[in-house]
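User: Modeling request: complex.
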Amino acid sequence: MTIDTKRIREDFPILKREVHGKPLVYLDNAATTQKPQVVIDALVEYYSSYNANIHRGIHALAEEATGKYEATRQKVADFIGAPDASNIVFTRNTTESINLVAQAWGRKFLSAGDEIVLSTMEHHSNLVPWQILAKEKGLTLRFIDIDDDGQLVAADIERYIGEKTKLVAITHMSNVLGTINPVREIADRAHQHGALVLLDGAQSVPHLPVDVQELDCDFLAFSAHKMLGPTGVGVLYARKELLEEMDPFMSGGEMIRRVELEESTWNDVPWKFEAGTPNIGDVCAFSASLDYLSDLGMENVRAHEIELVQEAVRRLQNVPGITIYGPESAASKGGVVAFNIEDIHPHDLGTVLDRHGVAIRAGHHCAQPLMKRLDVVATGRASFYVYNEPTEFDALIEGIEAAARLFRAPVHTGA
Amino acid sequence: MPQSIPEPEFDELYRELILDHYRNPRHSEPLADADVVAEGYNPLCGDEVELRIDFKNGSVSDLSFGGRGCSISRASGSIMTDLVIGKPVADVRKLSELFNKMMTDPEAEVPEELGDLEALQGVAKFPVRVKCATLAWHTLEDGLKQRDEGGHAVRHEE
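Assistant: Request completed. Predicted assembly structure:
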């Protein structure tokens, strides 16, 4: 089976709308994706037919809501090849999942002189929590650099992952360059040295087949809203023995077993990490997005995006003055194309494209150190998903040409 | 469709005067040995501004504008140089105040003193772009303050 975009597009009501009088061309999927009707319906169904607080209720609605919430946990586990539902913690987003690891694992197990290995292509969410922890604990952060093709420098992987390394926290797929990193090789090296591996899967889980046991990662963080699901739901996968030895992240209701005035004991994992009433409605709706993607097949999603990225690069390459960042080969690049065009600032380009109905991202993409590494202040970024079609690149190119006419200095012929 | 906010006109943002200043920035050659060097930076959008300011008898006698940024920020700085050079510092401060006011109220009448800056009035209707227009002016204000305090270099961050 291949991806039938014509049929898929029918499932997404937002794709029928116009922006500034033009059909919407949504190319900002690395930021968030649109939602199919089944996900919107699932959200409405929760609030209109079984809304209740979970785990403690003894009435029918509470049982239904608990059942659906926990069934979604199992579905998430199956989606990423986790051994058990108890490996899955629901959070608000990828950022919270990473902060959970930094606080609940990092604060307990790391001490002065320990090293954390990151890369220069990290999103701020997989950088800032480690900076704060490093300052607090006296840790050293090491950064694997990128080469001119936007790939991790192999020598840096060798050089920085060593005896002092306690954690390698790295993105599986760059949200700017699209680079798909060799995370299994990195995990093997980290484990040889007794270090753990955290993968930022915010971009990879929605777009590639991901199996945590094949990748042999210890932690994986990702967000529902980047994979057709609602906002407000993040996932942390962790090996069970890690979850068991980690301290709680936040505390209060739900995460406890027995509470006395002076002290308390903790609930079993994963509930130990889900303090307070969770985002039940959105978790239940997330279930529908996992079904939707599973029905499409993640291999097919990936194949579709390879086609899109190849076609996008082919079209964009012909734009005068363009620089495209990231791997040249679509085999090591997800559905993301970051670029700059001479004389046109990305923010100006974003504004002009918006007037053509084309939504792209312009800015630093929450990766300021990467911008510095590329020696740019910002880039434009087009990112794709299952409902995008090559014909949509016509509007992208037309918008770019319009921007070029607007911002380029007229050519002086010397007359 | 939820579109209660009237759409600002595209032409109001990219007026020909703005595009002209963007394509052909004025006073972009950095002044050598300037009295004050003021750098401005907006980490959120990456815009960078470098102002080099000379003073004589209480006036801004010369000013150069450089840096990296979008058309709005470049044009705002370029127009600023034209407007400010030769003016007493007190008048420059007043202009800055008027300009900041214009950027926060798209409906207000534009005072005559602002001259060509009037072309930037449309920017006020695009809230995400207002900081592009004000960065050069905020940096200039810091430069003027630096002179009052007897300093030579200052870095402004939005």
